[in-house]
Write a structure and sequence with these properties.
It is a single chain. The protein is α/β, with parallel strands linked by helices and about 400 residues long. About 40% of the residues lie in helices and about 15% in strands. It has one domain: Divalent-metal-dependent TIM barrel enzymes (TIM Barrel). The radius of gyration is 21 Å and the shape is globular.
Length: about 400
């Protein structure tokens, strides 16, 4: 069957072997917080705040870091291709540790585990679900003492990220997202943004080897429906000015906006892009990624425009209504399937037809491409990587 598929694609000028080789060089960063509904391990009965929530009561939520790592091992064993694991600051050995006092030693167990699993690590400061974020503001807070608390937390998070990069031999992405905002319309939209910019300037003042800095916007959150300090325009301008990575989260925009349409535009102005691939349903609901049109289009944008060396691909969803290990497995496999479909596309003929305004041929090729047997190539890849072809 694979030889049949190989011949079909060769007739279109596509090498399946080249596609599989390329696919095997793309790491996907798997987010740890799907495994425990974004609770972390600071305290026994942690609850979410900051405009986000995980819903559902399916049994099996990880109750400790050791259990979370075991669950992630199970998921990774069913996902073909290279992986990274994306951590939030609340997932280390941090019980009783203030967030402005975290150190790399609190995450040594994750580093040791990552070496054993041959995966990389990414990192995120956690600026929600804390008494010092209860006003809905952190890095933009009018109280200088609260801002300094979170600034120190972010500085230490960057140092931990750099430690990951040093220990694991691959750069770690440290992504700063804050849910700062107001439930109702503010009188002063500017001052919180001045505070946020000044806080970020201090956080990012010193470059760190092994660490890649990223900033992430959001449209709104529960409890901050009317005004978000770190809007898309704010962070797009900041990332361009500082020439740092900009994070595009699939759920952090208006319902009719798609990040697939933003990738090529943003790529002209920032050196790197971080993707948080999710599936919003009516709002930023972070459903498990399915193999839908937007997912495939995101992958096509990366492959068509040769952006893989500048784009870091990660996931961000959390669904407590289904088995959490399967949530990781299904979502990550779907993202890798989308990348394979994009790699198997005969892009040059498509571009040539478009260049000559032959839109009939372009449409015909796009539709006929859907009939090519990418599933057979996917099954071949799974067999070569010794993972299940089917999860059923």
């Amino acid at each position: 069957m694979y030889n049949f598929a190989k011949e079909r694609y060769a007739a279109q000028g596509v090498s399946t072997e080249d596609a599989l080789a390329k696919l095997d060089t793309i790491p996907i960063s798997i987010h740890c917080w799907q495994g425990d509904d974004v609770r972390g391990f600071e305290q026994e009965d942690a609850s979410l705040s900051g405009g986000i929530q995980s819903t559902g009561n399916h049994p099996g939520r990880a109750a400790s870091a050791d259990e979370l790592r075991k669950h992630m091992e199970k998921a990774i064993s069913q996902i073909p291709g290279p992986a990274k694991v994306n951590l939030h600051a609340i997932y280390g050995d941090v019980k009783g540790v203030e967030r402005n006092a975290i150190e790399s030693s609190h995450f040594q167990a994750w580093v040791d585990w990552a070496k054993n699993q041959k995966v990389g690590l990414d990192f995120n400061p956690t600026l929600f679900a804390h008494e010092k974020s209860s006003d809905g503001l952190t890095l933009s807070h009018p109280d200088k003492n609260i801002r300094e608390y979170w600034i120190e937390h972010c500085k230490r998070s960057r140092q931990i990220s750099a430690y990951f990069g040093e220990q694991l031999g691959q750069d770690s992405v440290c992504n700063v997202w804050v849910g700062d905002g107001f439930k109702d319309v503010p009188a002063d939209r500017l001052t919180p943004r001045i505070n946020l910019k000044n806080s970020l300037d201090e956080i990012f003042a010193k470059p760190l080897n092994g660490n890649i800095d990223a900033v992430e916007s959001k449209l709104f959150g529960i409890g901050v429906e009317s005004y978000t300090v770190g809007s898309h325009e704010f962070y797009m301008g900041y990332a361009m000015q500082k020439q740092m990575a900009l994070c595009l989260d699939a759920g952090h925009f208006h319902p009719t906006e798609y990040i697939s349409d933003k990738i090529s535009a943003i790529s002209l102005f920032v050196p790197k892009i971080l993707l948080h691939v999710s599936r919003p349903v009516r709002w930023d609901s972070d459903h498990v990624v399915t193999l839908d049109t937007e997912l495939i289009t995101i992958a096509q944008e990366l492959i068509r425009h040769n952006l893989l060396n500048r784009v870091h691909v990660g996931l961000d969803f959390f669904d407590g209504s289904i088995d959490r290990i399967y949530a990781w497995t299904i979502g990550t496999r779907n993202l890798r399937k989308a990348l394979l479909i994009a790699l198997l596309e005969p892009y040059e003929p498509l571009k040539e037809a478009e260049k000559h305004f032959d839109f009939t041929k372009r449409l015909l090729m796009l539709e006929e491409h859907k009939n090519l047997p990418w599933q057979i190539v996917w099954e071949e890849y799974c067999e070569r990587k010794n993972v299940p072809v089917s999860l059923i």
